[in-house]
Every structure is written in structure tokens, then in C-alpha cells.
Write a structure and sequence with these properties.
The structure holds 3 protein chains of 3 kinds. By secondary structure, chain A is mostly helical. Chain A is built from 15 helices and no strands. Chain B is mainly alpha-helical. By secondary structure, chain C is an alpha/beta fold. In chain C, the strands form 5 sheets. A 6-stranded mixed sheet of chain C has the order 2-1-3-14-6-15. Chain C has a 4-stranded mixed sheet with strand order 8-11-7-12. A two-stranded antiparallel sheet of chain C has the order 4-5. Classes of the chains: A mainly alpha, B mainly alpha, C alpha/beta. The interface between A and B is large, with 124 and 120 residues.
Chain lengths: ~325, ~280, ~425
């Protein structure tokens, strides 16, 4: 963190009550150098984001207007075909049902992730240290295990003939689960995929919420306790305001990840049975990568981006505004 | 806040249940790594393994190049995490503590940058690295992992810095600290939990990335562990026992990384307690 | 900010310009003339194809014969190979020799990214090429791929169980096969985990044999494109026989998954299965569970409905190609010449594969399982050589959905085949 040491951090003008005082102070010191400081600090991020993410994204938009198959890619020929990639995709009735399925799946998955993670985060806060570490290690392991291993292990657990789940259910007296296929319909396939994703996604969200929770000064809880507030009131009055911004943030992130998720959905049943668990990311893979039509792939990716922007626009607006609201 | 014994027991039981639930697939992966192909899926009821073989681990560890891949993975991942954290903290400070022209736009950029559809960007990214002559070098991967975790890092750290009352820094300054000193001594330690969650996230994302590592790195000697993990597959078969054993080995560094930063998480908490 | 943007725009222009001439950039060590005056020859073979002993000797011999040339040999992984090849071909210095799967070859050939080898067929041992593989390397009358190796499926069975059930000789026809299944069931059926034939529902490579055997096919070439023919009488008969096998055996294999999940050789290794359809190499996987099983395993070719004949089999395997951007195509051809020589092809046979460019399978014949495969490979066939077939396999395979729908009774035979035709036509249709 050498850079932090070199760059003096001036008094901010941003935190709630004593803002006026600091405003005055800043005006006194507000030379040109001082005013440049924030820009210098964000410069590395700005450059990195624009060059390493922005530029490839712009290129992707360009590619979506081109015919880019293997031939064009290798020879470097540029063939513009306007919006043909878009019209071809949009005229496919399957696209809309897949889009709807993706949105519903994402919404359910995000809601489940947040709920489970919130419960675990609250639980961790109240556990004794030994059990808390146990919980944390099991969470980290769930998160650290490579996706290829996880998806395979889930397939084995849910295997219809020899899976440990069906064998256990049978032992517990539910004999109808002998040879039961968890992947016979799209909905149940997606449910298994949902469990798999939940298992992988909850740890991060739970840790983040937990970090937010332990940031709350203890005395606030004590004060609530003295006022005679029950656990629910304490949660509403103390914990909730502390984690609300973090919750908004992880909601936003979870929406992005679940919406774009490919590996897990593909690995479990390749979007089957009969295409019934196909999501937009799968569609993009099928139309684009599997057939090396990078133009169509880029077009679908662009539409996913637009859809995602639409879904999150309200959110982004809210996020930016809330932050400012807090700052003002 | 004293809790009754019954409450504490209920909480502990719930905690253990959660731990078990989340541990089970990992456990299953581990026991599978001790099985032969015929035992992976068999009619036997084997919730607790009845026999164990270490051949899978032996075959995994004797795969050529393991140490090289491990080294590459560690270098790229750690470098990307550290770079992202440093650059991220730098950007998070002005976002949370300054009001400057373009701040909102920058915030928006950081948010929208997270929407970047990575899997669709691999062709443009490849072309970019080709034109920068970075293909087949570790820095190309470092850059990608750094870039993909940066917006997230900035956004998270911004939230965390924001959550730390400015009054604390101010109090330190009244006590004679410089502004930098105040930030370093007060805000940075309080950022502990935030830094930990963010770094664990970046670490695991980079640690598990496969596609870019595969496509950017021409030579075997420069590839990373996820690519190694896929080497258990041949045209006509997959050595699943080997994959599971390899996955167990593979998850260990991530676990160690967590255990190291875990202590920091605790110290971040104590700092929080002191401040409170 | 604005200046920076300008700079970025400039960089963009440069990028576009260079992107426009991929392949002309020139690597440091690429010798322009592609002659024999030195440089590096990059060779990519797939994981698990040629054994290390072969490639070590081959590369040494090649380097000795070409002074100053260094072979940069890299083993590639199957996961993500499509993306890896795609990007590598678009780079300034693509590899000079690549192994690609036979069903993927038409896709690459049709895109004009492979060197035309039509003039070199003779010097690359052309007359001995394996017919079923040869077709996959050809596109519009030109040759782009050199057959490397193939493997095909046969029925692997437990000799001891057959003996105990009183079966003297392996079945020589479909009818006998069904009879033997009944006999095995009668003998061992009291064990509820026993299955005479392990046959998962989506094993479409096995289905291909039955379809071809009954005179059907997946699709027929039709002018410029292909038309699916899964609803033809022959194809339907093949599908019906598949169901007959599944029903007769009472296999507990999943109807909605293929032979890889769960891995069928592992199940066979468990000792409760008398037969499965697979490649000889899978026995090694089974032997990891039960080392004695290899000695108890025999093989017979997939029976035909016509007694005395055997069913055609799908040839899975690889071709060798030279990317069109290769800097040293002549050296690459020299390399292919050496690799397709009888010496190295015999080593492929010894490694358990049907050699692609040599009819000498004596090394394979020494192994009883291998000899059955080698014989059946003469009757080997390929999937439609449509450039889009790769999409069928790497995407959602309509044949798999058809099998599941029909076997589970969700769709009638007519409905399942008609739907599969529609889905397949969407991908490979003209």
C-alpha cells in the first residue's frame, strides 16, 4: 500500500453530520494539487476497466454486427452484416421462452441465496467461536472446490440408480425413490442445478453479510438490549440498517452471476432434457461457440447484456442514488 | 447479552447442522477420491466409506508438471489479488471520502463494468492480448484476473469504507495523526473484514478460472492448475477418481489462504471492538 | 479523459488493422520459406492419443533428419479444445501439425482454415488409409485430414458368466444375442443388482450400429446439404432393436444419460454386469476396481440382424491436419510422412488403436479384445460429413433426446423420430 502513503488523503467532505466543518477546511486547502488527488487515485482503476473490460466489450458489440465464423477469424476478414445476427435470434420463438425461463430462474435463485445466506450470517454472529470456525471452513470449502468437481459430485449424489440421495431416501422408508430420476423434467433439473449453485454462492454472500454485521459496534446492540428490544426488534433496528447497503450490493452481484451462469447448467444436463433447462447462457454457447458462429454468439451476449441492464437499471439507479443520499 | 443454556445449545446445533450441510458435497468428493471406479457408483450403501485406496492421489500427484502448474497458479492468483486490492483501495477512498466531478459517472462505470459478459469476451480478449504480444505469458492472465475482479473489489471496498464513520479518522487527526496516518491507523484496520471477503472472492475466482488460462497459454510449462485438472480426460475415458483426488489437492491452497486471512478477519473484529 | 479516449481510438484503429492481417505478423523463429533451414515445428496432439514412447522416438528421429529444426511438442486437453483451436488458428503463429477429432474435421475443412493435402495423399501412405476415417478428412472433393487412429465399439462380455449360463459361443446374430440375454437372466436373475447387458438410454454410438445394420442412416447427402432420415424404416427398426435390448436386459442404467455418466466401465468393474458395449480401452478402467476382470473379459463384434454378419460400427478417432497459416507447411508434411509410416502406425496399433494410415494391425491382433475391434473397424462408418455435425455433438444432440423420449415412453416411435428429424435438420439441414 505504498501509494496510499505517498498520496495524502485530504479530509473528506462526505460523511453526515460534521460535513460543513470539513467543507470549510477543504476550501482552505483546495489547491490544484489537492483537487487532482481523487483523480490520481481512481486513475489506475479507470485505465484498467476501460482497457481490459471496456475495449473488449466494444469489440464484442462490433462483432455482433459481423459474420465472424472460423474462416473470418483466421483470415482476419471483416464482413459486416448489419443486424442479421439479431434478427435471426429474435425471430426464433425459442429465444423468448428461454429468456423468460432465465429471468424466473435467476429471480428464484437470487432470493433463495440471499435468504439462506442471511440466516447463516446471523447465525454465525451468535455462535461460539469453535462452531463458527467449523461453519466458516465448511463454507470456504464449498466455495473453493473446483466447479468441475462439484458438478460431478452433485451428479453422483443425485444419480438415479446408485446415488447416495436415493439410497438414503430408500433407507429412510421412501421406497418410491429407488431409481427415481431427478432429471426427468426441466423444472426438477433446474431445481438440482439451483441447489448446486446455492451451495456455491451462499458462502460468499454469507461472509459478506457477516463482515457487515460484525462491523456494527457492540454497544448499539447493548443499547437495544437495555431498551428492552427483542431479537426481532434488535435485528430491525440495529442489524438491518447496517447490512442493507451490503445486501443491495450482493443482490445486484448475485443477479449478474446467476443470470450469466453457464458451467453448472451445462455440466449437469447440457440444458436438457429436450432443452427444458436451457438458459440464455446455454443458448449463446449453442448458437455461438459450439458452431463457431462468433457473430451470433456476440449478438446473444449483447442482448443478454441489454436484458441485464433493463433488469438492473432500476437497481443501479437506486444504488447510485442511495449512496449519494447517504453521503449528502 | 447473556443467553440461556437452552438457547446456546439450539444455536450450536443449528450451526453444526449448517456446517454439515455445506460440508457434505466436499466430504463426498473426498470419500470418492478414495474409491476405485467401480465403487464410485455401486449398489452398496456407502455413506461411510468401507474401504479406501490412495491410488487416485498417487496417480494425481505423479502427473507430470504438477509443481509447475501449482507455482503458476499461485503466482498469477496472488499477484492478481494483491494488485486488485491495492488499486481497489485507492479507488475506494475518493469514492467514499471525496466529492469530485465525475464521481457519479465513475461509480456508474464500476457498476456497469461488472455486467461484462466474460465468457463472450474471450475472443476480443484474446485478440487484445495477441496485439499486446502478451500471449503465452503469465502477465496476460494476471491482467485478466485483475481486471475481472477489480470492479467488484472497488465496489465492495467502497461500501466498506463508507460504513466506517469518518469521525474516527477525524478524532485521530485531532490526536495529531496526519491524514494518511489517520487513514492507515484507523480506517485500514477497520477495513479488515472487507479486505478479507473481497480477497477471498478474488482469490477463488482467479484460482478456478479455466478458459482464459487454457486459451492464452500455449506452452504446458505456463499453464495453471485448472488446466491440469482437465488432463484427467482423454478421448475415450475420464479418470474420475483422479479428478476427485486432484480436486481435493487443488482446494487445499484456497483453504490455506482462507486460514491465513481468517486471523486477519478476527483482528479486524477486535479492531472493531476497540473502536466501539 | 478526452485525450485518453483519442489515444484509445488510435489503439483501436491499430488493433483493427493488425486483426486484418492475422498470420502475416510473423513469429521470431518462423522461417519464411518454410524450408528445411531450421526453425521450430509446433505439433499438437491430444491427451491420451499417441503414447510418450512413440512421440519421443518420432520427434528425435525427425530432428535428426532435419538439422536445425526443433519440434515443439505439446499435448492438448480435450476440455475446451474447440476454443483453444479456434484461437490458436487465429494467432500469428499457429501450430504446424494438429490432431483433431474426426467428427470435427469437416467443420474446420469447410471454413478454409486447413491446408489442402490432396496432392500429398500418395506420399502419406494414402492407399492404406482407413476408409471410414478417410471420408471425414475430405470436403468437396479435396483432402484436408490424414487419418491418424480410430477406435470402435464391440461387445465386451464376462467369459465366466457366459460359461456358467451355458452359452458356448458368443452370439452371431441379433436373435442369438437376445437369447443369450434371456439365458443370463435366467441364471443370475435372482440377484437384483445383476444386469445381463448394461445399456444406458443415450448411448447413441451404439444406436448408430443398429440403425446402419437395419439399412437406415442418420441423414443423407442431398445436393448441398443433408436431410435427416431418422424416420426412415431402417432407422426406426434400429431404434426398436435398441428398446428390445433395453427391455430384455432390464438394465438399470439411466434412460436419460449416456455411457459416460455414470461411467459404464466402472459399473462393469463392479462385477454385476455380464456385457456392455464399449472400446477395449475401457476394460482397463474396470480393472482398477477388479484387477481380475481383464482376464475374464472377452469380446465379440456387435451382432447383425443377418446371421453370420456383424453390424457396422461408428469409427471414433482423429485426423492430422496442417493449419493454412502454418509457417512451415513443407516441414509439417515431412512430419506427417514420418508419423504415417508403417513403423509409427504399428506403434499406434500396439497402443490399442486401429491405425489410421496403415492396414497393418498385427500389433493390435495380439490382443484378443483388440483383434475383434480391428476386424470390426473394416466395417466402420462415419457420421454425416456435414460441416455442422460438430455442432450436433458439442451441442444438444437430438439423437439423445430421441432415445430418452422413446425409451421412457414419453413419445411414440413415430413422434420421437419425427421430432429428432426436425431438430437435426435445423442444425445440419441444407
Amino acid at each position: 500500500m505504498t501509494a496510499t502513503q505517498n498520496a495524502p488523503v485530504p479530509a473528506g467532505t462526505t460523511s453526515p453530520a460534521p460535513a460543513r466543518v470539513r467543507d470549510g477546511r477543504r476550501r482552505r486547502r483546495g489547491g490544484l494539487g489537492e483537487r487532482l488527488v481523487p483523480y490520481l487515485l481512481i486513475l489506475p482503476t479507470l485505465v484498467a476497466v476501460l482497457v481490459l473490460l471496456g475495449w473488449p466489450t466494444i469489440q464484442m458489440l462490433g462483432i455482433s454486427l459481423r459474420q465472424l465464423d472460423l474462416r473470418e477469424l483466421v483470415t482476419g476478414k471483416t464482413v459486416w452484416i448489419g443486424f442479421a445476427n439479431y434478427t435471426a435470434t429474435l425471430s426464433d420463438p425459442k429465444f423468448w421462452s428461454v429468456a423468460l425461463r432465465t429471468v424466473v430462474f435467476t429471480a428464484l435463485l437470487v432470493a433463495a441465496t440471499l435468504l439462506v445466506a442471511l440466516v447463516i450470517a446471523l447465525l454465525m454472529r451468535h455462535l461460539n467461536p469453535v462452531i463458527r470456525i467449523l461453519v466458516q471452513i465448511s463454507l470456504v470449502l464449498a466455495w473453493a472446490v473446483p466447479v468441475i468437481a462439484t458438478t460431478t459430485v452433485f451428479q453422483w449424489i443425485f444419480d438415479q440408480q446408485y446415488g447416495i440421495l436415493n439410497k438414503t431416501l430408500d433407507r429412510l422408508g421412501f421406497h418410491s425413490f429407488i431409481g427415481y430420476s431427478w432429471f426427468s423434467t426441466g423444472a426438477s433439473t433446474l431445481a438440482v442445478i439451483g441447489l448446486l449453485v446455492l451451495w456455491q454462492a451462499v458462502p460468499f454472500v454469507a461472509f459478506t453479510l457477516y463482515a457487515g454485521l460484525i462491523g456494527v459496534p457492540r454497544e448499539q446492540y447493548e443499547a437495544a438490549g437495555i431498551d428492552g428490544a427483542g431479537p426481532w426488534q434488535t435485528f430491525r433496528a440495529v442489524s438491518w440498517p447496517a447490512i442493507r447497503p451490503i445486501l443491495t450490493m450482493v443482490t445486484f452481484l448475485s443477479v449478474l452471476w446467476d443470470f450469466n451462469m453457464f458451467g453448472q447448467v451445462w455440466a449437469i444436463r447440457q440444458g436438457g432434457p429436450d432443452g427444458a433447462s436451457t438458459t440464455l447462457a446455454i443458448l449463446q454457447y449453442l448458437k455461438g461457440i459450439a458452431g463457431s458462429h462468433f457473430g451470433s454468439a456476440a449478438a446473444i451476449a449483447t442482448m443478454m447484456l441489454v436484458l441485464l441492464l433493463l433488469v438492473t437499471a432500476r437497481y443501479v439507479q437506486l444504488l447510485v442514488r442511495t449512496k449519494d443520499g447517504e453521503l449528502a | 447479552m447473556k443467553r440461556s443454556l437452552a438457547q446456546r445449545i439450539t444455536l450450536s446445533v443449528a450451526g453444526v447442522l449448517v456446517a454439515l450441510l455445506f460440508f457434505f458435497p466436499t466430504y463426498w468428493m473426498f470419500t470418492t477420491s478414495l474409491k476405485t471406479p467401480g465403487e464410485v457408483l455401486s449398489p452398496k450403501y456407502d455413506l461411510i466409506p468401507t474401504s479406501a485406496t490412495l491410488t487416485n492421489f498417487a496417480s494425481a500427484l505423479t502427473k507430470p508438471g504438477f509443481v509447475t502448474y501449482l507455482g503458476n497458479s499461485l503466482i498469477v492468483t496472488l499477484a492478481a489479488v494483491i494488485t486488485a486490492l491495492v488499486v481497489g483501495v485507492l479507488a475506494a477512498i475518493p469514492l467514499a471520502r471525496f466529492r469530485f466531478r465525475g464521481r457519479k459517472g465513475f461509480l456508474l462505470l464500476i457498476l456497469v463494468a461488472q455486467l461484462a459478459p466474460l465468457s463472450a469476451l474471450f475472443i476480443p480478449m484474446y485478440l487484445l492480448m495477441r496485439d499486446l504480444s502478451l500471449l503465452n505469458t503469465l502477465p496476460s492472465l494476471l491482467l485478466v484476473y485483475f481486471a475481472t475482479s477489480l470492479p467488484f473489489t472497488v465496489w465492495m471496498l467502497y461500501g466498506f469504507v463508507n460504513g466506517i464513520p469518518y469521525d474516527l479518522e477525524e478524532a485521530a487527526m485531532i490526536d495529531g495523526c496526519s491524514r494518511t496516518g489517520a487513514f492507515r491507523r484507523v480506517t485500514l484496520p477497520l477495513l479488515g473484514p472487507g479486505l478479507v471477503t473481497t480477497s477471498v472472492f478474488s482469490f477463488i475466482t482467479a484460482w478456478n478460472e479455466f478458459l482464459f488460462a487454457l486459451v492464452f497459454m500455449r506452452d504446458k510449462s505456463k499453464q495453471t492448475l485448472p488446466v491440469w485438472l482437465s488432463s484427467f480426460k482423454t478421448a475415450f475415458s475420464v479418470d474420475w477418481g483422479g479428478v476427485m483426488a486432484a480436486s481435493v489437492i487443488y482446494a487445499i491452497p484456497a483453504l490455506i489462504f482462507f486460514l491465513i486471512v481468517q486471523r486477519k478477519l478476527v483482528s479486524g473484529m477486535t479492531a472493531g471492538a476497540v473502536k466501539g | 479523459m478526452k485525450r485518453w479516449l483519442k489515444l484509445a481510438a488510435g489503439a483501436a484503429a491499430i488493433t483493427l488493422a493488425t486483426a486484418g492481417c492475422a498470420g502475416s505478423g510473423g513469429g521470431d523463429n518462423a522461417s519464411g520459406s518454410g524450408g528445411s533451414q531450421g526453425g521450430t515445428l509446433t505439433v499438437w496432439l491430444m491427451n491420451g492419443s499417441a503414447p510418450a514412447s512413440l512421440t519421443d522416438a518420432l520427434n528425435k528421429e525427425f530432428e535428426a533428419a532435419h538439422a536445425g529444426v526443433k519440434v515443439n511438442y505439446q499435448i492438448q486437453e480435450w476440455n475446451g479444445i474447440q476454443q483453444k483451436l479456434t484461437t490458436a488458428l487465429a494467432s500469428d503463429t499457429p501450430p504446424d501439425v494438429i490432431e483433431i477429432g474426426n467428427t470435427q474435421t469437416p467443420a474446420f475443412a469447410s471454413q478454409g482454415v486447413l491446408t489442402d493435402l490432396s496432392g500429398d495423399v500418395a506420399s502419406l501412405n494414402g492407399p492404406q488409409w482407413l476408409a471410414g476415417l478417410k471420408a471425414s478428412g475430405e470436403f468437396e472433393g479435396k483432402t484436408y485430414g490424414v487419418p491418424f487412429y480410430a477406435a470402435n465399439r464391440e461387445v465386451l462380455y464376462r467369459k465366466d458368466m457366459f460359461a456358467q449360463a451355458g452359452i458356448a459361443a458368443p452370439p452371431a446374430s441379433d436373435a442369438e444375442w437376445l437369447d443369450d440375454i434371456a439365458k443370463l437372466k435366467a441364471k443370475f436373475g435372482s440377484d437384483k443388482d445383476f444386469q445381463p447387458l448394461y445399456l444406458p438410454g443415450q448411448y447413441w454410438y451404439a444406436l448408430l450400429s443398429f440403425i446402419w445394420d437395419n439399412g437406415g442412416d442418420v441423414a443423407k447427402a442431398d445436393g448441398k446439404g443433408f436431410t435427416s432420415t431418422l424416420d426412415s424404416a431402417g432407422s426406426k427398426a434400429g431404434l426398436e432393436f435398441y428398446k428390445q435390448l433395453v427391455d430384455a436386459s432390464g438394465t438399470t442404467a439411466p434412460k436419460d444419460n449416456d455411457e459416460a455418466t455414470p461411467e459404464q466401465a466402472g459399473i462393469y468393474g463392479g462385477g454385476k454386469v455380464a456385457m456392455f458395449i464399449g472400446t477395449p480401452g475401457e476394460v482397463a478402467t474396470a480393472a482398477k476396481t477388479d484387477p481380475t476382470i481383464a482376464g475374464k473379459t472377452g469380446a465379440f463384434p456387435i451382432p447383425s440382424k443377418t446371421a453370420g454378419q456383424t453390424a457396422p460400427v461408428f469409427l471414433g478417432g482423429s485426423n492430422l491436419v496442417i493449419p493454412v497459416n502454418s509457417k512451415s507447411p513443407d516441414l509439417a508434411k515431412e512430419y506427417l510422412k514420418l508419423l504415417t509410416s508403417t513403423k509409427y502406425m504399428s506403434q499406434m496399433a500396439a497402443a490399442g488403436y486401429v491405425p489410421g494410415a496403415s492396414t497393418d494391425t498385427s500389433a493390435l491382433d495380439k490382443d484378443p479384445l483388440g483383434s475383434v475391434m480391428a476386424k470390426a473397424s473394416k466395417n466402420g462408418r462415419a457420421v454425416p460429413t456435414s460441416p455442422k455435425w460438430g455442432e450436433v455433438e458439442s451441442g444438444q444432440n437430438p439423437l439423445k433426446d430421441m432415445l430418452t423420449a422413446y425409451l421412457t415412453g414419453k413419445k411414440s416411435l413415430n413422434q420421437a423420430t419425427a421430432d429428432a428429424d426436425t431438430a437435426l435438420d435445423k442444425i445440419i439441414g441444407g
